[in-house]
Task: inverse folding
């Protein structure tokens, strides 16, 4: 139903009814903000990035040929916008080595709380080289659906798999302690 | 599923603010208006280009070809024809390219 509504709205916008774009914005605002948040970890910036993505989609709506799902095309457009946005803004990235130090210091002091651990992992993802960061962000955004993530990134599934493998290795190398600690804690609790 | 998968799947996205869609639509409408306004300007720009650059160029080339003979005249006419063709193509494509950029 959503796919059908998307097609109809796109057609109406192309025919000149700008207001029809609001339907698209209403349906996809939450997923696009969610994806942006995975890239930047900042609520205000995520909205700014999502707005830029919608504008870009509006400008290039004629390029969607209706062959694949509209959402796949929209996520690919948004991913490109987010990557350029991050390149332009040059957000401060905490080097992975520094995160490793922070994580081990905190572990010595006390067990890391769940939220703290999640934040460290997300910071570590942002500290990855862009191609690995993008692979991880899209793969988990699409709930570990490899083909969807590959389509959004414009990569083959094989390339994405290799980026994911490399990204996981880097994360495990630098955050191995806190990941093991969390896993061990859960096993002990069970 | 390992710990890394669990943490990265569980990222909670913030709710969009209530006026998000309205802000996007405002930006979209502003852009549409700007685009509508910019079309006459682009047409004017291309027109000025054709009148002040293209036409004198054509006149000069044709006059030049009259004073020439044989193969030279033919080359000048060919040049005139190609120049006009390029000018027409630029006039047709440029506004669209500028609007889409």
Result:
């Amino acid at each position: 139903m959503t796919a059908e509504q998307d097609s109809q709205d796109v057609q109406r916008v192309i025919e000149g009814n700008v207001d029809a774009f609001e339907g698209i914005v209403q349906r996809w605002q939450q997923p696009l903000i969610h994806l942006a948040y995975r890239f930047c970890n900042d609520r205000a910036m995520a909205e700014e990035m999502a707005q830029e993505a919608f504008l870009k989609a509006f400008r290039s709506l004629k390029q969607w040929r209706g062959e694949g799902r509209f959402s796949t095309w929209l996520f690919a457009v948004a991913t490109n916008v987010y990557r350029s946005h991050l390149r332009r803004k040059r957000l401060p990235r905490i080097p992975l080595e520094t995160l490793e130090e922070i994580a081990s210091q905190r572990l010595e002091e006390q067990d890391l709380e769940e939220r703290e651990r999640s934040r460290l992992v997300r910071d570590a993802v942002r500290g990855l080289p862009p191609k690995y960061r993008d692979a991880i962000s899209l793969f988990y955004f699409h709930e570990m659906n490899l083909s969807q993530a590959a389509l959004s990134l414009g990569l083959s599934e094989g390339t994405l798999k290799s980026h994911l493998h490399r990204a996981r290795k880097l994360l495990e190398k630098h955050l191995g302690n806190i990941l093991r600690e969390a896993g061990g804690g859960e096993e002990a609790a069970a | 599923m390992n710990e890394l998968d669990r943490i990265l799947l569980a990222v909670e996205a913030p709710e969009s603010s209530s006026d998000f869609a309205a802000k996007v639509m405002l930006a979209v409408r502003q852009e549409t208006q700007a685009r509508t306004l910019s079309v006459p300007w682009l047409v004017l720009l291309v027109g000025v280009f054709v009148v002040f650059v293209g036409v004198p160029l054509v006149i000069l080339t044709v006059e030049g070809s009259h004073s020439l003979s044989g193969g030279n005249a033919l080359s000048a006419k060919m040049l005139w024809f190609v120049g006009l063709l390029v000018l027409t193509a630029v006039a047709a494509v440029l506004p669209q390219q500028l609007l889409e950029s």
In short: Confidence is low (pLDDT under 50) at residues 185-190 of chain A. Residues 2-89 of chain A form a domain with the Rna Polymerase Sigma Factor; Chain: A fold (CATH 1.10.1740.10).
